[in-house]
Amino acid sequence: GEKGLLRDINKKGWNNPRIDKQYIKMDLKVIMSDIDNPNTDMDTWKSEYKNIIISSSGREFPMELLHNAFKDRSGVDVRAVPRFRSDKLCVWGIDPARSANNAEFSIVIGELGENYNQLVYCSGDKGLEFGAMTEKILMLDKCFPNTILIGMDQGGGGTAIRDNLRDRRFIPVNRAYLIDPEDPVNLPIIEQGTDLYRSILKMLIPTAERNTYWNKFAKNQLELHNTIIPFTTDGKYLFDEDTLPKEYFNGSEVKSEVVALYRAIHVMKKQIASVEIQKAGNFLSYFVKNGQKDRYSAFVYMHAMVQLYMQVYKDAVAQEEEAYGVAIRR
Question: Of 89, 151, 99, which is closest to residue 120 (Cα–Cα)?
């Protein structure tokens, strides 16, 4: 009943929303279904189920900005779709997770394009051990073989994953290590020759200053429509089969997995929209009052790599294998 639903809301720490009488004639279970979703905040609930216009005050990424991210600069729907694999140049953001807590091991992947960059993949997994996290990175590296930069938070188990990515127990002898050449622990590997590694992994230490710059850059890319995100809407993950790559329906990528990928991207959008900001000295602090923000963090780290690519790598990716080690193929 209504009292039970409000009791569930109280468990989430929300202020009690008023349930209008007309909703009693509808399926309240459906209306209130997002209560148990850790990625739904009160403002999102009001907007989607009560049709209440919410203020974006204190939010770095208004939901409208994310909702319209499927359009290019001229306002045209570019028919962007997520992908399970891509041969284009790609950059990643990874937010590791310690298996002992409730955090997600989150990965966001973007394709670099001539006119815009497109988010093509997102995932968030709970309960993985560091070995399983490493294996997932290596699996996705095969699916996105032209990855040129991976930004991974050093905290939350990032150091353990880094060590695995240069360990022959995880990396076959015919496959190059994934390393950060600026990390001094990798010096013995670098001294053995460039054919042993690909210098694409960047270990990130998110200070208040860096977080501010990365978030502002990510927001700027969305505002300029330089970052495209496939269209999603809550509870309806619509897609036109004619616009999807044919491989989606060959082999293991069945429709349910396509829907799951859309859902993962939509949850990421909700996390991004729920992030609030406050002053932290001369910079900003980013936080959520309820729910999780792991996929949001991976999204921001992906943009940190886009920024690095624009600053340093753009003129280097076409050079020979010895330049940055990014052209090595397996």
Answer: 89
Residues forming beta bridges with residue 71, ordered by sequence position:
77
Which whole-number Å values give the CA distances from 34 to 48, 74, 104, 128, in the listed order? 10, 34, 19, 25
∠ CA 221-224-225, nearest 5°, is 80
Give the C-alpha separation, 272 to 62, whole Å: 9
**117-125 and 105-111 strand pairing:** antiparallel
Beta carbons of 110 and 143 less than 8 angstroms apart = no
The H-or-E segment that residue 306 falls in is helix 294-308
- CA atoms of 178 and 145, how far apart (whole Å): 12
pTM, to two decimals: 0.75
**Residue 205: Cβ-neighbour burial (10 angstroms; 0-12, 13-18, 19+):** exposed
116 by DSSP, 3-state: which?
coil
Helix orientation angle between 208-223 and 294-308, rounded to the nearest 10 degrees: 80
pLDDT means per 10 residues, the chain with 330 residues, are 44 43 44 55 58 59 88 90 90 84 90 93 93 95 94 92 92 87 85 83 93 93 94 57 48 67 90 89 86 93 93 61 39
Q: CB under 8 Å to 113, separation ≥6 — which residues?
A: 88
Q: Please, which residues have CB within 8 angstroms of residue 160's CB and are 6 or more apart in sequence?
A: 96, 130
Token pair for 239: 């897609």
Backbone phi, then psi, for 95, in 5-degree steps?
Answer: -110, 105
